[in-house]
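Subject: complex prediction, re-run

Hi both,

The earlier run crashed halfway through, so I resubmitted it with identical inputs.
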Amino acid sequence: MPFFSLKAWVQERLPVSGEQLRELTNEPVPNHMKRWWFCLGGTPAYLFLVQIATGIMLAMYYQPAPETAYESVRYITEELTFGWYVRGIHKWAATLMIAAVILHQMRVYFTGAYRKPREINWMVGMCLLIATLLTGFTGYSLVYEQLSFWGATVGANISESVPVIGVFLKKIMLAGDTYNEHTLPRFFVLHAAVLPVILVLLVAVHIAIIRVQGVSELKFEDEPPKGPEHFNFFPDHLMTELALGLVLMIILSALATILPVEMGPKADPLVTPEVIKPEWFFYVMFRWLKLFSRTAAILSTGFIVFTMFAWPFIDDWLRRKTRIPEISVWIGILGVFLMTGLTVWEAVVAH
Amino acid sequence: MWLRAAKKIAVARRGSSGTASDFIALSSTCPHLGCQVHWEASHSRFFCPCHNGAFNPEGKAIAGPPAEAGQSLSAYPLKIEGGVLFIEAPLERLDNQGRSLAPPEMPYAGIKSGRFLQGGR
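This time it finished cleanly. Structure:
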């Protein structure tokens, strides 16, 4: 069958023309997005695709049971052909994905891009942040290292402190009152199925809302006043994203090779190691838990997360009340200093 | 083998009156967020490496988040029978005062701690 008739055959059944497809993808992109730091929203999306691809490969060899999990990860890391590379990419892409999500959120925050009419998308973004952190947490719980076991134990006990639903939450998380043989399969299903599906759905809503509202536009002083104000998504912006993806792949490969992922000591439910820390993105929470009693630390964290969720409305109220237009910037700077300070503090001391 | 709900208990001898009160048996599970404490001889304290909780030899919290919340290490009831020390180690959780949190019909699950603790008579 010649090609042109195949095309006619498909088009007869799916009446979508190339012209219509081009129109669908050709969202006009404002000029400020030629600057790379405005592409930080696309970065976690790209890294998420990397995680899906490498995660599928790892899931083919990983065995989620306390007796086999550690050994299967060791096999992937030390014996499987290119296993060290795939696991290295997965681990480093997770680190970069969380970093990119945080940087993207900071960019949105400091440019006030969450303000009316974009409050809903800010809240969808907050859900994405939490889902990303949970995916990271359930991910390092799977290796069944000491950190995996004690991280899961501490995490479950934190959830137990949540008022009203805490005990139920802990039971659901651990598949029982304490860590048991059904815990790891549960973490695996959350990490490899439930949370990725939630992330895909949230990303779809996040992007759909961006397409409906358009990207918030920013003007820079060095822009010509009478030039074109937009450029095409396809292929111009997609090329930027692809170039960024290539650079990220080089960075990921370099990191996976130069700083290869290693096996920590195997989980021992009877011994908590002398020095134990979660992954870097939970350093803030870990230090916070050392500073206050359990109830105070957890209630204040809940309050901070709620404040972040409701920030577009709180910001609006604060600006009207104080008449300081940049109040969110000052509060943001304070917050970033506090979080960086707590992270560095946790990183440099043993206890 | 998977050690379901395995528990580590620190047992110390404090006197020589020949009764169970000579001994103390403390849970190694930190009441803060469930990590395992260990004995630090140089500071005479139990220390939890997770969030810096510290407990005196009696199990009372002296520093860190457990001290702020007034949480102590659970103490297990002890008894001496025929020169052997028994630790009453229920299969369910204890509260801060060593009281069982499970219904009273839960079977007594005492374990023989070993003859090396025999003595005092």
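The mean pLDDT of chain A is 92.

- K.
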